[in-house]
Structure formats: structure tokens, C-alpha cells
Amino acid sequence: MVALLARGDCLRLSNSSACTAFVPSSIPVRGSVPCLKSQEDELGAISPVDDEYYKHDAGGYYTDDAPRAPEGMSPSLNNVTLCGRIGFIDQPVSLGNGNKALRLSIATSDVSMSVLFNSLKRGRMGAVRTSWHKVVIYGQGNVDYIQSRARVGELALVVGALSYYTPQTPEGMPYRAKIAEIAVRQRWSGHTFILMPRTAQSGDDYANHPIDGVSDSYGNP
Asked: In what order do the strands lie in the sheet with 19-21?
């Protein structure tokens, strides 16, 4: 039988060189997630310390090194990722600051789990719901890349930010509703547009014409 030998602040197995230390700690609890720390129980014994939660010697630790928002300010994020097929590519426009912009549409498809489950039981695929998303690309390099390589029906990966604009009628009157779109800005970190061409060409089922009676107004990136 293996015996336990007590030596000072360590408990050591007689047939092992490993030593588990039990030390006191006064590290406080901070935030919504309590940090593990050593505490003395009612009998005076000391509980072990979990070193993974501590990275420094001072008090007031969070459980990780993720950046926090300043005091009194809530963190926020505006990031949209789409992966779908290109349905319409508009003509590029020149902005007042010498930059270029171009609009296109991306189609994504999804099937609800209930429809998919019932359809698989019957041996056929369920109805697919297609959603169209407006995407605006900023930057002369990005616009030239799309003009020279993008084709209707090809797969594309889009990472950008959600933005809104108010379209106008041919008479110059603004609509009451705002239109949501994904803006891919050249100077913003993380924004990207990647083409994934198809290996086999097939007939395109996508409309390649603008919406009649609506003129889009571009904003600066």
C-alpha cells in the first residue's frame, strides 16, 4: 500500500517525486465569473490553488487576457459574414474623394430544421428559402478586382459591416424606409471579398438587372 508522508507544506507520495503544494492566497473575486482562490475552511485546512487563473502577482485578476472596454462603456461589434452566390453586379461609380464604389447582391439559402426533417423522411429535399443581400464594395483595387473577375453565379465570401442608406426616386424624393447593406471598406481591418469560382459551368438563374425606379446613393467609406 502506498503511504502518504507529510513534509511541511507538501503532501508527497512515497513512490513518486511529484509534490503538490498548498499555499494561502488573498486574490479577490472580480467580474461575473468568480476566480478560484485558496481559502481556509472552518477546520483550518488550506485548499489548493489553480495557477491557470493567475498570470501576475498583484490582485484584481480577470480569468483571461481579453481586452476590456473602458469603465462605463459597453463593448460593441458590427461584423457580418456572408457566403453565397453573386446575383447582380452593378456598374462602378466614382466618389467625390477620388475613390470608387460598386454594389452587388449575394444570395444565401437555408432550410428550416422542421422542413428538412419531414422532407428527409419522405426521401426528398425540402423547400429552400433564398435571401438576397445588398453588398457595397469600396476601394479602387477592390472594384477593379470584382469587375475583372467576378461573374454572376459564382460563390463569394464577404466580410463587412452592416450599414443603412435611404434610396431616392427618379424625382429625387427619398423613400421613407432605409435599406440595409453590407459595406466592405478598404481601410477597415478584417473586411474582405473573396471569389470562389465554380469548377463546372452551368446555367445562371440569377437576375442581372438593377431595380427599376430606385437610384442608390453611395456614402464615403
From this structure: 4-7, 10-13, 19-21
Tens digits of residue pLDDT in 23-56: 444 544 444 444 333 333 333 443 343 444 333 3
CA atoms within 13 A on the CB side of 123: 0
Question: Where do the domains of the chain lie?
Answer: 1-67, 80-196
Report the chain's mean pLDDT, rounded to a whole number.
65
User: CATH second-level architecture of 80-196?
Assistant: Beta Barrel (2.40)
List the one residue out of 2, 207, 171 whose CA is nearest residue 85: 207
Q: Write the single-letter amino acid at 66.
A: A
Grid cell locating 119: 422532407
Side-chain half-sphere CA neighbours of 96 within 13 A: 4
Instruction: Give every residue of the chain whose pLDDT is below 50, as ranges.
Output: 1-25, 27-67, 200-220
- 13: Cβ contacts below 8 Å, ≥ 6 apart: 2, 4, 5
The whole-model pTM stands at 0.52
Q: How far is CA 16 from the centre of its chain?
A: 48
